[in-house]
Specification:
Helix 7 links the parallel strand 6 (182-184) and strand 7. The longest helix has 18 residues, at 18-35. The protein is an alpha/beta fold. The relative contact order is 0.14. The protein has a single domain (3-325), classed as TIM Barrel, CATH 3.20.20. Helix 3 runs parallel beside helix 5 and helix 11 crosses helix 12 (311-325). It has twelve helices and nine strands.
Length: 336
């Protein structure tokens, strides 16, 4: 059975502030654990009023503290924003607090604008050092050597699993060369999905961490009791993409009845291209969509993005998705 996981953006909506968004993320993770999801990852973004996960390691600790078995990690840490040493200290601490449950997904993009890059005090060319920084980071998690002078306390010996995340072929090749598991962001960059998977699988070199390729793909999935209800819920995400194209900084809006009243033809085309692999509908519709996606991609795991405005409706969406994928066998219930 293919594993299902969740990518959590900790979205701030027109109805919730950042504190409520953080608590909703923790509550959602507890439900996801009960529904059978394998892991929940938190994305690092900066200078975005709509996203409350900038302090990613802190958010991971908040979520892990409210759950018991589900894996919790980063999807991802944008490594050029940070010194590898500091990330090793943070995730080594998380690994000591929640042993066997912490993942460290790494990305090369800044996850923000150039103003925030300057505020982070990291040089713009830091991304050029991404492969070397990964190796440095990996070394901090290894067992300490005799008389080793520099330790990322308490990371040494935790062997936190590292992942490469990307929306391009560069990340696929790097993950293959390093022998790391790989996650592709097809939830917003679907055009290169199949090419990236081919590069990763055909070029993979086994490593101490990973003997064979392991590919995760991000996918937008929104479920409701009917196809029409799910399509309406999906308008919140569609409007958020349009706002991004327009360069506005609006909070996540509630769904609307007719998305055609919100976007222009060019905005619609752009949004539909980025959201091309979305699966939206009832439980049966979602089951059909997931089965087709797995048959095409042979993904080892799906990382679900289910951006729904109302917290209770989002939990319900994830419950129906779990049932559709077969990781949860119970009959539908209304989420509390």
């Amino acid at each position: 059975m293919t594993k299902l996981s969740i990518l959590e953006h900790v979205r701030v909506t027109t109805k919730t502030d950042a504190g409520q968004a953080l608590n909703n993320a923790r509550d959602l993770a507890a439900h996801a654990e009960r529904f059978g999801y394998h892991r929940i990852w938190v994305a690092e973004h900066h200078n975005m009023p709509t996203v409350a996960s900038a302090a990613t390691a802190v958010v991971i600790g908040h979520i892990a503290g409210g759950t018991n078995t589900i894996r919790v990690g980063s999807g991802g840490i944008m490594l050029p924003n940070h010194a590898p040493y500091v990330i090793a200290e943070q995730f080594g601490t998380l690994a000591r607090l929640y042993p066997g449950r912490i993942d460290l997904g790494l990305g090369r993009a800044p996850g923000t604008d150039q103003m925030a890059v300057r505020a982070l005090r990291r040089p713009p060319e830091a991304s050029d050092q991404f492969p070397q920084d990964i190796l440095e980071l990996q070394a901090y998690f290894a067992a300490a050597a005799p008389n080793q002078q520099l330790l990322a306390v308490p990371a040494a010996g935790t062997k936190v699993p590292l992942w490469i995340l990307s929306s391009s072929n560069f990340g696929a090749m790097l993950a293959a060369q390093l022998g790391f598991p790989y996650a592709f962001a097809s939830q917003f960059a679907p055009d290169y999905l199949m090419q990236a998977l081919h590069i990763y699988r055909s070029s993979f070199r086994s490593s101490q961490q990973q003997e064979r390729p392991y590919a995760v793909i991000g996918v937008n999935v929104i479920a409701a009791d009917t196809d029409a209800q799910a399509r309406r819920l999906a308008t919140s995400q569609q409007m958020s993409f349009v706002d991004m194209f327009r360069g506005t900084r609006e909070l996540t809006p509630p769904p609307i009845d007719d998305i055609e009243t919100y976007w222009s033809p060019s905005e619609k085309a752009q949004a539909n291209r980025m959201l091309a692999r979305s699966i939206i509908g009832s439980r049966d519709t979602v089951r059909t969509g997931i089965d087709a996606l797995l048959a095409e991609t042979r993904a080892d795991e799906l990382m679900i993005v289910s951006d729904v405005f109302e917290h209770s409706a989002r939990i319900r969406s994830l419950e129906l998705i779990a049932q559709a994928a077969g990781i949860m066998q119970t009959s539908p219930t209304m989420a509390s």
